[in-house]
Amino acid sequence: MGKKSKSLQSMSGFGRADFSCASMSGYVEIKSVNHRYLKFSIKIPESLNSYYFSIEERIRERLTRGSVFVAVHIKRAPGELGNLVNLDAIKEYQRVFKELGLDETTLPQMPGIVEMDTPKVVSAQEWKLIQKALIEALDENIGMRVNEGTALNKDVGTILTLMSAHAVKIMETLPEIKENYRESLKERLGQYRDVIDIPEDVIAREVLLLVERSDISEELARLDSHTGQAKEYLRKGEPCGRSLEFLGQELLREVNTIGSKSHDSKIAQHVIELKVEIEKFREQVANLE
After folding, report:
1. Region 213-235: what's the mean pLDDT?
2. Whole-angstrom Cα distance, residue 15 to residue 58?
3. What is the pLDDT of residue 73?
4. What is the three-class DSSP state of 70?
5. Strand extents, DSSP E, the chain
6. Which residues share a beta bridge with 66?
7. 137: burial class by Cβ within 10 Å (0-12, 13-18, 19+)?
8. Residue 7, CB half-sphere, CA atoms under 13 Å: how many?
9. E strand or H helix at 118, and its extent?
10. pTM, entire model
11. pLDDT tens readout for residues 136-183
């Protein structure tokens, strides 16, 4: 039985596998798309109803997230259909038609004449064959998910690198910006010294408070921590879509705080670029398992 893949996967995939034996033939199709959790839609013939939860279990063993659509189609061999005509129904229809003087050529079209074209239960041997096709279709589906997951891994990694680059540039400008804050406040307070006697220690305290209120070092440190954590999730190659979605929210929170605390035009431009990259990040990780 297959195991969960250690490769990063998207949630979009498709797989199909055929099966055939003396008594029947058919195919299994498995399609998956994005979903917050693992959700199933399984369409099977009545003869497979007793295996419904076995089909679901096989999929749960391999997938952890996505909306999964499973369809099993069975066609019975001609020899298996010999007893499908309901003779009792034909006799009753013939009696009624004769009494009413109706044309019996329409008999085959009447309800109940031809019964369901599959046995009520699939045999154990037939189920083994169908289950093998189910696993093959699932393998193909997962192969597609892994291929797309590899591409997403690369794209998300590039986005995280760009985020880190913007954060580094903001960090590099902090000493200059802090000094500009000090000089700007000293200049503004100095304009009132001719009118109001402002002690030097008061000016120094106000400058310190302004610099502290505008300090974004902690936000930048958390931004760096979140991007590093996201890169680690990608490196492990395990299902991490929901964790990355949460990190996307935290990244945006830190960047919004940086934007609100800083009034420097250079930082404002980096904040805009960071928000663009975070939006790309959230769009891409929404596709990951």
Report:
1. 91
2. 14
3. 95
4. strand
5. 13-20, 24-33, 38-43, 66-76
6. 38
7. buried
8. 15
9. none
10. 0.73
11. 999 999 999 999 999 999 999 999 999 999 999 998 888 887 777 777
